[in-house]
Design brief:
about 55% strand, signal, single chain, YceI family protein, about 200 residues, Lipid/polyisoprenoid-bd_YceI, elongated, TTHA0802/YceI-like_sf
């Protein structure tokens, strides 16, 4: 390889590196603030509606705010046994159904952004696709939410619905099967990420 070829190759590598670095230069990572975040699971039974709240959450989001916001990465983790109803019996049935001894966490790992559109004042409507893992089963899931952005904080708000049986979770029963839980659940989240 002659000197000119080496210079050309080096210049190409340098140019590619600069382009990649420029794309990452404006991307910033924000960490989930558990104290400022809320996640509630709503469901039904043949006796009454119910809900459980996540006492612990973690995760991160990487966003490029240099122009129209672009989400580069989104990861969420909820320890399954942090879901609390305020009733120990119901919590035990929930943990049994989720097999929390074997599967400690419920996770969402974004794989792609389907759409993101500005609705003004640093607010966006977003649709992403990612892997949702519950009780050891992972499914590709679309998550729709609004995103509020500032230089120091990102807030995601949304809801998603699915059936427990989609993830191999048998809806819990109580009182010798006289109370049966509906298959469909709704997750309502208001998640805050900070630098």
């Amino acid at each position: 390889m002659n000197v000119l070829s080496k210079v050309t190759q080096f210049s190409s590598i340098l140019l590619i590196t600069m382009i990649l670095f420029a794309g990452q230069a404006f991307a910033q990572e924000f960490k989930l603030n558990n104290a400022a975040s809320k996640l509630t699971v709503y469901g039904t039974s043949n006796l009454h509606d119910w809900d459980v709240k996540a006492e612990k959450q973690s995760g991160s989001i990487v966003v490029d705010l240099s122009g129209t916001a672009q989400i580069k990465q989104l990861k969420l983790v909820v320890p399954a046994e942090s879901l609390k109803s305020g009733k120990s019996g119901m919590d035990k049935n929930t943990y049994d159904a989720l097999n929390t001894k074997k599967h400690k966490n419920i996770t969402f790992d974004m794989k792609s952004v389907k759409s993101i559109s500005s609705i003004g004042n640093g607010n966006y409507k977003v649709s992403v696709v990612g892997n949702l893992s519950i009780a050891g089963t992972t499914k590709s899931t679309t998550l729709n939410f609004t995103m509020n952005t500032s230089s120091s904080k990102i807030v995601l708000k949304g809801k998603t619905n699915f059936k427990m049986t989609t993830f191999g979770v048998k809806p819990p029963k109580a009182l010798l099967g006289t109370i049966t839980t509906g298959d469909a659940v709704t997750i309502d989240f208001n998640t805050t990420f900070v630098k």
